[in-house]
Specification:
Largest sheet: 7 strands, mixed
Helix content: 25-40%
Mean pLDDT: 89
Radius of gyration: 33 Å
Oligomer: single chain
Low-confidence stretches: 604-612
CATH architecture of the largest domain: 3-Layer(aba) Sandwich
Number of helices: 22
Structural class: alpha+beta
Distance between the termini: 124 Å
Strand content: 15-25%
Number of domains: 3
CATH class of the largest domain: Alpha Beta
């Protein structure tokens, strides 16, 4: 029995010793080895201050800075540490009313009496410079550094986008973001948010029970530094962008210019536009509401979202399809007696071949060409021929998103046969039913981006690259924009159509776009006067230059302004000259002066009619 009690005694002693060893080891790991547990335990006496990274910079294609950062500050408050102070002086220095002060303090107390919260967001560096000299007079307040976007020139708002505070949906979608963080919205800022945003850091401070900072925790050993975001090299030519926005002042419409060899967007103008500085800082919300209420829709990106009929600028595509389908040859001639059936046309020489049809923009020529496309005996029905015609259009990028970086890009419209079946019954419609499509009218709709892309495809003699606005992000080029999209039309057919576009600008009597000619550069183009059921016709022009080895393809829409040669063509020719020559020649000075001084928004409609 004695041996049994002795065995039990030693067993209990052994168990106590083992438990003590385990406990001591555990305490050693928690208190010495793993500081992270100490941090968790000391949470109630530590303050974590987020270190926000500077967003990456945005440059143009030539290395000119477009978007950079400026210092800003969030004013934080800990209600428990505030005391009696000169409220009037405080409000005067921060340019807020006493009512705003009381509302913000009430909100801070409701959030937490002892934890810090934001009292005032995005104080500018200039305002903070004055305020910091007096901040010691206002206990309980301190600042947290931030950065705001700054722009080298007040242009490119629709390309660049803006930065605003995250909402609950975005926080749930991506755990990286916390309340009070900022995120890119629209344009490059949104499309390349992950590249631009950088990585947040944190500083840890020791605080007492009254939330007063007593020093850095662990001498900063647990702090992490913020990492600045990656820089972006855009495809935009800043000088060309600025010039295009000047040309489109007091006009409604859009310009899209593309480098055909790469698909890089050289300029993208949506007018009316706005100064990107308006959506920065504390005034952003107020300015956003004003811009949203503006009846001219400055926030609306017409280049990607407006769907217009292409008008006569669409005729080269129908010519290409007809050549490929072998329903015409370049020498095929059609007569024009001021139109074709119920589709009118202007006076010009007749009959015309393909080159002359494009040069003179003959509606009758392309109505008869389109009719041959849809009544092609190679197909069993008009519907089948129409489907083939429509498939060519999708290869050009019509009726579908081109998949640029922009999330707000719209696809335009190329109706499927089912669309006409609903109105006319299956097999109840013919070529004449949809004859307006021959001249780019009717149900078809295209964005200025799609028209510029079509022009680039013609300039390339049958292929294009996805239009895009960024060359590289963080030193890496976007591989998805290197894919070449080939159109199933022989390059020889493109050459025939290009001869017509060349003649439209550089031909003699009957040429509709002579105003776009340049003395030492062969410009190929096509005018369009787009019928608009809501008002005056739209002035449209597409062009590329030079004819061989083209460097720029462009589409211009000037809303409610009449003939394509009146406004869109001179705007496009000035843009081409600016890009290729870097300056406007004396010979083009009169065009530039007229376009810069022209106000199509301010003048009354009857005055506009008199000009025409």
């Amino acid at each position: 029995m004695k041996d049994l009690f002795a065995a039990r005694k030693y067993f209990i002693i052994a168990m106590i010793i083992i438990a003590c060893v385990i406990l001591i080891a555990r305490l050693f790991v928690i208190q010495v080895v793993k500081d992270v547990y100490r941090l968790s335990a000391d949470n109630n006496v530590l303050r974590y201050v987020t270190q926000y990274p500077a967003r990456g910079l945005i440059y143009d294609r030539n290395g000119n800075l477009m978007v950079f950062n400026q210092a800003a500050y969030d004013l934080m408050v800990i209600p428990s540490q505030t005391s009696t102070m000169d409220t009037a002086l405080f409000c005067e220095d921060l340019e807020i009313s006493t009512d705003v002060f009381r509302e913000r303090m009430k909100a801070a107390r409701n959030y937490s009496y002892r934890a810090p919260s934001i009292f005032l967001k995005q104080i500018s560096a200039e305002s903070y410079a004055k305020f910091q000299e007096k901040i010691f007079m206002f206990p309980g307040f301190y600042v947290q550094p931030r950065t705001l976007r700054k722009y080298s020139k007040p242009v490119g708002a629709h390309i660049l986008g803006y930065v605003s505070e995250v909402d609950e949906i975005q926080i749930k979608k991506d755990p990286y973001y916390k309340p009070g963080d900022y995120i890119g919205k629209l344009g490059i800022e949104e499309a390349y948010e992950k590249e631009l945003r950088g990585t947040k850091g944190v500083k840890i401070f020791l605080v007492d029970v009254y939330s007063r900072v007593k020093g850095s925790y662990a001498e900063g050993a647990m702090d992490t530094a913020a990492a600045q975001g990656n820089d972006i090299i855009s495809s935009i030519d800043l000088d060309l962008q600025e010039y295009g926005e000047r040309l489109m002042e007091n006009k409604t419409g859009s310009i899209v210019a593309i480098e055909p060899a790469s698909g890089e967007i050289l300029a993208l103008i949506s007018s009316p536009g706005y100064d990107p500085e308006l959506l920065v800082g504390r005034a952003r919300s107020e300015n956003f509401l004003k811009l949203s209420a503006d009846t001219l829709l400055p926030l609306f990106n017409r280049a990607f979202m407006a769907s217009y009929p292409p008008g006569s600028t669409f005729k080269p595509v129908n010519g290409l399809i007809a050549l490929q389908e072998k329903v015409i040859v370049p020498s095929t001639s059609f007569s024009c007696n001021n139109g074709y059936l119920f589709v009118g046309c202007h006076s010009h020489s007749s009959p015309l071949d393909l080159k002359g049809g494009i040069m003179n923009s003959c509606n009758a020529y392309f109505c008869q060409t389109f009719r041959r496309i849809l009544e092609n005996p190679e197909y069993s029905s008009v519907t089948e021929a129409y489907e083939k015609w429509r498939s060519y259009l999708t290869q050009f990028g019509f009726g579908t998103k081109l998949e640029t970086e922009f999330v707000n890009e719209l696809p335009g419209l190329v109706p499927a046969p089912a669309y006409y079946d609903r109105f006319h019954g299956k097999n109840g419609w013919r070529a004449l039913t949809v004859i307006s499509l021959a001249i780019g009218q009717g149900e078809i709709g295209a964005t200025p981006l799609q028209m510029a892309n079509m022009t680039a495809a013609i300039a390339n003699r049958g292929y294009y690259f996805t239009p895009h606005v960024v060359r590289s992000a963080g030193g890496e080029e976007g591989s998805r924009f290197r894919t070449r999209y080939d159109i199933e039309i022989d390059s020889a057919n493109f050459e025939e159509v290009i001869l017509g576009m060349e003649a439209a600008v550089n031909g003699g009597a009957g040429a509709t776009a002579r105003i776009a000619a340049m003395p030492d550069v062969v410009v190929c183009g096509k005018t369009g006067t787009v019928q608009n059921p809501h008002g005056k016709d739209h002035s449209v022009f597409i062009a590329f230059a030079p004819k061989d080895d083209p460097e720029i393809a462009i589409a211009v829409y000037v809303e409610n302004s009449g003939f394509g040669a009146t406004y869109a063509a001179p705007v496009a020719s000035l843009m081409i000259e600016k890009y290729l020559k870097k300056e406007i020649s004396a010979a083009s000075g009169w065009k530039e002066k007229r376009m810069l001084e022209l106000d199509l928004i301010g003048i009354k409609s009857d005055q506009r009619d008199e000009e025409h």
